[in-house]
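Forum: Protein Structure Q&A
Topic: Joint prediction for protein chains with partners

I've read a bunch of threads here and the consensus seems to be that you should model interacting components together rather than docking separate models afterwards. I'd like to see that in practice. Below is the full input, 556 residues plus whatever partners are listed. Could one of the regulars post the assembled result?
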Amino acid sequence: MSKKQLIMESALELFAKQGFEATSVQQITDHAGISKGAFYLSFKSKDELIIALIDHFMMQFTSDIDWVVKNSNNDTELLYDFYNAAFASFQKHSDFAKIFIKEQSQTPNEELISKMRHYDKLTDKIILSMIDRLYGEEARKVKYDLIYCIKGFIHVYSHLFLFFNLPFDLDSLCRSLAQKTNVLAKHSTIPFITEELFQTFTTEQSYEEVTAEQLIELLGQTIEEIEEPIEKESLTLLKQQLIEPSLSPAIVKGLLENIRNHPHCKWVSYLLRGYFGF
Amino acid sequence: MSKKQLIMESALELFAKQGFEATSVQQITDHAGISKGAFYLSFKSKDELIIALIDHFMMQFTSDIDWVVKNSNNDTELLYDFYNAAFASFQKHSDFAKIFIKEQSQTPNEELISKMRHYDKLTDKIILSMIDRLYGEEARKVKYDLIYCIKGFIHVYSHLFLFFNLPFDLDSLCRSLAQKTNVLAKHSTIPFITEELFQTFTTEQSYEEVTAEQLIELLGQTIEEIEEPIEKESLTLLKQQLIEPSLSPAIVKGLLENIRNHPHCKWVSYLLRGYFGF
DNA sequence: TATACTAATGACTGGTTGGTCATTTGTCAA
DNA sequence: TTGACAAATGACCAACCAGTCATTAGTATA
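Posted by a regular:
Agreed with the consensus. Here's the joint model:
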């Protein structure tokens, strides 16, 4: 494990327990068994660390739920699958999820806030595409409210998960929430969040389209990071495809599938899916 | 205004802007125009201050929504009135609400966490009584889920309120949420939170019944605090009634009504309503 | 073995924190 | 005017903080 990862894992644990502000760099390095100076070889500052953590997790979360929404071919199970992916992600990275819930928009760190907003907007976009697909015109008036209801459900129920150590029936939870969401979509008629209001929340451009050059750069970095041969070759071929397209869509899709579940590839896989139009 | 209140108001503003940990006692006293030493004449520590703030606001919030639920005689408007009271309270004390959302269960301060849990349980109780009244047997299976849905709605929508400075149509919001709640109550059938599960969340005894002695003590304090003659006399008569009952229920109810809206009486009024059974 | 290099250390700095307390200021009654 | 008491002050303290940097340890090449 790289020193950077070691630090991130130690910090994750302590932040989840004590919060970001209340955890000192000294505590993190003690816990990781390294010196304080070594910390600053990996991160320029404590702020850079929390941002790296946010990025690391949110990239996975975003790409996970995006994949579920884009690749489910069974509309009746889509909501269930969506909630399942979201809660599975929270459960798997429960330390991060705790930080995420605690540290929401509360820090004076400008960059962190804008990071959070950014991922929040991506989540909105994914949820919206799911609603559009499931209900289309039927939910035109209330679709923005539905986004917020879904986020509210996830918030309160993930609280139970995270802060009570009880064995939960994830299947039951997801079935329950899928029905609730469906009921709201079918029967609620009074919107609060209008298209116009929703736009004002998301004024700044979100989800900037990435260029091929940026993707090639990112792919180059990722190729260096990982060792598994299949993933490494898939990434290399995809990089080649960006420089000079020669592969058929089926092959590209297959290559994307190869890397989809590798923790270090989730984000680049998400971006590539957007780029290639899958 | 007492020194204690002055400090609390200054702190409220700064905590909302910067968070609790990031605000120093020096900043608070500078902002309040007093010396640092004077702070410690009013509060034993910085922690005691945040707890006083939580108490001050949550007592008002709890008693406000309790009053609405207990005193609405129009079932069709009850949900609307409930949301209205809740959001009005958040809007009126937006600085506090920001702190509340930010500081939720994230501090290492044990007492604060248990305070939060305590008020959370009271809120659950009030919401549950509302659901029971509106839907009774009809929502027996899903009533605990409804509590969490309602809390989820309040959470996400209050976020919009608090962190975007936009003019909101409170009426529209409450109508929208009342309908959503009603739709869920009428059509959702798959519960996640069973009675048993709900009980385990709320194991410790909540809402300890207060004794007449405690109420008399509290009334004595409150009488000292306020100056308005009507409220003062009402409190004095109610205190007398506790020591030696002599007034008719109608008169007692009227006296309670007199003090209901005074900020310093809300909590004692809530407790008295419970005690006298209104 | 000698050299050149990077990785890692932890004492240190300048600054801030929550909290204390000897001292001063203000306010009464005598 | 005096004296007694409470209210208020702010310099001060030990503890801790994020971040630095001269020094050392480890490693690979020649």
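Chain A touches chain B through 46 residues (CB under 8 Å).
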